[in-house]
């Protein structure tokens, strides 16, 4: 029977003291991934412990190389990788935006590393020694995505295979609670990163039959005809003198007939 140690009047078995000692490395590992990798992970997460440990080891080996020099911009590397591997323009850029938000030192809660979030086994398969080095990491992500595009000949299925692995894609996007949402996010980002189609301005169609020009004659000013000599001008109407009204007899004078009869 194991020994017991009393704490506050409560007897605790000796083996129970080993539990905190076992939890400390797990907590430290998860805190290191969250802090150095810029991600969110529970301190008591027991998932992907081995891959997270390998990712932290790769980060510690890489970090001294970029303390002083830093890293070049990712966008020219992404565009060059798309051209070299025949990836539709903007697709790899959208995928990296969803994977790591274009952060070079990103570590996922599952232990994926770098801008393209390569798992340790995938990085080894693609012969990438330092997944946090942007040039080989972006190139490996481009090669892996181009391989899935050639295999499935479909953008949705290729993006799903990048996330869940080609073995999980059987003619459709797997519904595992993660990949279906991942594909939707990449395709939504792809709508913004793909080149915009040029705007074509349609011109009115030109008729094949030639149009005859119609000459418009200017109006000709007519000359005024000279007056004919044989035509006499009309005589001006004669003016008549106005008729004066008869004058009235002066007041007090008598008519002449009455004056004559008076003299007889």
From TrEMBL:
Region (Disordered), start-end ranges: 219-264
TM regions (residue ranges): 15-37
Family: Belongs to the transglycosylase Slt family.
Keywords noted in UniProt: Membrane, Transmembrane, Transmembrane helix
InterPro entries (UniProt xref): Lysozyme-like_dom_sf (IPR023346), Transglycosylase_SLT_dom_1 (IPR008258)
The UniProt record lists the keyword Transmembrane helix: yes
High-level lineage: Bacteria, Pseudomonadati, Myxococcota, Myxococcia, Myxococcales
Segment forming the signal sequence: none
Domain Transglycosylase SLT: 77-179
The keyword Transmembrane helix belongs to this UniProt entry's keyword annotation: yes
Name used for this protein in its record: Transglycosylase SLT domain-containing protein
SUPFAM superfamilies registered for this protein in UniProt: Lysozyme-like (SSF53955)
Matches recorded under Pfam families: SLT
Domain of life assignment: Bacteria
């Amino acid at each position: 029977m194991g020994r017991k140690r009393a704490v506050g009047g409560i007897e605790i078995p000796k083996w129970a003291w080993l539990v905190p000692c076992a939890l400390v490395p797990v907590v430290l590992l998860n805190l290191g991934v969250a802090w150095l990798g810029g991600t969110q992970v529970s301190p008591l997460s027991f998932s992907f412990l081995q891959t997270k440990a390998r990712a932290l080891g790769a980060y510690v080996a890489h970090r001294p190389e970029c303390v002083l020099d830093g890293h070049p911009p990712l966008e020219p590397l992404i565009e060059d990788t798309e051209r070299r591997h025949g990836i539709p323009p903007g697709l790899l850029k959208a995928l990296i935006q969803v994977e790591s938000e274009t952060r070079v030192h990103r570590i996922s809660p599952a232990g994926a590393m770098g801008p393209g979030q390569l798992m340790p086994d995938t990085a080894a398969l693609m012969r990438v020694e330092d997944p946090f080095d942007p040039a080989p990491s972006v190139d490996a992500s481009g090669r892996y995505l181009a391989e899935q595009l050639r295999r499935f000949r479909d953008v949705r299925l290729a993006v799903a295979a990048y996330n869940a692995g080609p073995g999980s894609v059987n003619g459709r996007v797997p519904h595992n609670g993660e990949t279906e949402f991942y594909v939707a996010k990449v395709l939504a980002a792809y709508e913004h990163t793909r080149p915009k189609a040029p705007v074509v301005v349609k011109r009115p169609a030109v008729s094949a039959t030639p149009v005859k020009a119609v000459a418009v004659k200017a109006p000709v000013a007519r000359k005024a005809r000279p007056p004919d000599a044989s035509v006499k001008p009309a005589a001006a109407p004669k003016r008549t003198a106005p008729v004066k009204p008869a004058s009235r007899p002066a007041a007090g004078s008598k008519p002449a007939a009455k004056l004559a009869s008076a003299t007889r």
